[in-house]
Design brief:
Length: 337
């Protein structure tokens, strides 16, 4: 079983057990669903109803969503801080400053490690121990692409709700604690570790979305094979499948999240390209008509101002969700014929 939480940290968070072979689509859905047979029908090891595998494609998608998610969560927590202060967030003022030195980056990395990664994994471990067995902790690199830290067990079985708690605990607990600190000490310094933890929870949220599609009485454990992932098993003698409507909802969420991720990567690339060859001024959308998606511009003193049209972006994400739902559904119907 494998709980993965990528993010923009130098070491990213993971909680998993040593798994075996499995596959999954990247739209919060599974590549196969099997009929559960009783012991009298077969003496072979039970086949999972569905299984998840961390492929290179999934790893790259998580990395992209986590990187964009860091800035998205920072923007969201910035709104929370502005609300606490009773001020307006936008336009966001970015004062000119020198890039951090090597020692500066080292201090930032150690700070994130202590404030985010360690408590994140310990919280995974607390609930894995509570519901199953004490995990081991370590670090690694997924597909030579994504560094991570992990808290892992081997051979344990969990109910759906138990694993949902273990997956979501770091995001919920650390976010709640961070916002509480923000209320007492309304400083923007809290935003970075909060956004780092939230972005580092992308894999946890992704897998929670997969698990939630199945009834509460399924069991989650190691999948067959020797890969990273987890298997979803039905109760003995019963045939279970995803809850009605979940495949369509999964495609809609995938389309919406993917649209936001692609837009974020494009906006970031446009700003960097403009800074490299020109003024750094980038406008996406039509501010005059109220359809502003993103605007970044620099003042003569080097200060940068940033504006995000959150309502317009939400509309674009909804359109992307509907478009992907139609495309994916038609594709599934054509391949099934």
């Amino acid at each position: 079983m494998f709980h993965y939480t990528p993010g923009p940290h130098s070491i990213l968070s993971v909680c998993f057990t040593r798994p075996r072979r499995a596959h999954i689509d990247t739209d919060f859905s599974v590549a196969f669903e099997a009929r559960l047979v009783s012991r009298s029908e077969s003496t072979t090891p039970p086949r999972p109803l569905a299984a998840f595998q961390l492929t290179r494609a999934v790893t790259l998608q998580w990395l992209a969503v986590s990187a964009v998610g860091f800035f998205g969560f920072a923007y969201g927590f910035g709104h929370v801080l502005a609300w606490i202060r009773g001020t307006s967030l936008e336009p966001i003022v970015i004062a000119p400053s020198s890039p951090p030195t090597v020692l500066g980056w080292l201090a930032i990395s150690i700070g994130l490690l202590v404030c985010v990664v360690v408590p994140h994994e310990l919280l995974h471990g607390v609930f894995l121990t509570r519901y199953g067995q004490r995990p081991d902790y370590g670090i690694g690199v997924s597909h030579f692409v994504l560094p991570y830290a992990y808290a892992g067990t081997s051979g344990a079985r969990y109910t759906r709700n138990q694993l949902l708690v273990a997956l979501l605990a770091p995001f919920v607990v650390l976010t709640t604690a961070g916002v509480a600190v923000m209320v007492v000490v309304p400083t923007p310094l809290v935003i970075v570790p909060l956004a780092a933890n939230a972005a580092g929870s992308i894999g946890d949220l992704w897998m929670a979305a997969v698990l939630y599609q199945y009834p509460a009485d399924v069991r989650v454990g190691d999948p067959p094979g020797d890969v990273r992932g987890f298997g979803i098993y039905g109760v003995h003698g019963r045939s279970l499948s995803r809850r009605p409507g979940m495949p369509l909802l999964a495609r809609f969420l995938s389309g919406g999240v993917g649209t936001l991720a692609m837009f974020g990567l494009y906006a970031l690339g446009a700003v960097l390209f403009s800074l490299a060859i020109g003024t750094g001024d980038v406008v996406l959308g039509d501010p005059e008509s109220g359809w502003l998606l993103f605007r970044h511009y620099r003042l003569p003193d080097g200060t940068a101002l940033l504006e995000v049209g959150d309502r317009a972006l939400l509309g674009v994400a909804i359109l992307g969700g509907f478009a992907w739902t139609i495309i994916a559904t038609v594709h599934c119907q054509l391949t099934a014929e």
